[in-house]
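job 3f2a | input accepted
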Amino acid sequence: MNRPADGPGRAARFAAGPALYVHVPFCAVPCAYCHFSKEHLSGAAVERWLAALELEAARSAPGARGVAFRSLFFGGGTPSALSPRHFRRAWETITRHFVLAQGAEVTLEANPETVKPGLLDAWADAGVNRLSMGAQSFVPEELAALGRIHDEKKPAQAFALARAYGFERLSLDLMFGFPGHRIDHWRHTLDAALALAPEHVSAYGYIPEHDTPMGDAVARGERHTVPPECEAEMHAIADQRFKSAGLAPYETSNWSRPGAECRHNLAYWLRRDYLALGPSAHALWRGERSANTRALADWADRLERGEDPAMERERETPESRADETMMLGLRLANGLDLGDLSAEARAELEARYAEAFAAGVAGARLERTRRGWRIPAAQRFVADDTLAWLAVRARPLAPLERAA
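job 3f2a | predicted structure (404 res):
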């Protein structure tokens, strides 16, 4: 079969943003590797989260008046851990305060063991049209080591049930390079994942995180990640397998069937406006970046007192815009596209990085495309090396360039 072209496609790029993110911080059992904001699931905690979500939505809505959001993403944590009743309350809060565009992509992250008929009814009735399921591995001993509470058969059962309820856009999350991971196990996981015929797959290299059981064990020298060359081989194996199955790479860790790119994540990589609600949620809205306080109790306390839940707010500068445009755009498989940028953003980027890009092309770190630049496919897994190399060659912008 013909292998798909690198993405993201033009239609997906056009449809990305503005976006809305809702962080659902609850987990039945925290995974051994996860450093996202999370809380143990309890009725009282969920009720407090819902009440604070209403306060934050009401606080944020005036700044989004007249905006029709093209994507909504319920992330976590484990959004699928919410009961149907609690999910419906969250949905009512969001749709009461914000407008979704017709045909908006609405994603919900789900763990396979939580996908059940009552929840599928609630999600489908509300308008969720994309499920992102965390599988990580299809090897029993790896699932146990990662702290997953589902077995290797649950993702297939969850996929079959979701298909029966009419969900046509399903994504799988996989992980590689964690302590004890083996290439033969990775091949098995890829085979099992592709047997489910997902429209989208995310495959992330493991990163040890402080204050997680697995990350702390790595820091103490009790556990060891796989060697870098082995991790690179795992990424290359996945890329080859996904391409053969009709899934095109469109970002360093993401592959999809044509037209099935995650529009919400593209809003991040293309630096489109996005609002975010919930503990630890990060936003980029009207030229300002913000980060909510991490803990549920702190976030809720602030909102209950009528205070800003953000612990950080920072206005963008021409330099920071250009830097992020470079770093995020070059993570896309077909690269940084000047057609995605406003005239102002394009001028800032070229003033700051034209010389670095030319040097990168001359040194084969970059390829010039018809509309911009990209990292060669063979170097995509080590894209961060190229991004760092470009960053140290960025040219300071003169005052007139900052004001242009």
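job 3f2a | Residues 273 and 286 are 7 Å apart (CA to CA).
job 3f2a | closed
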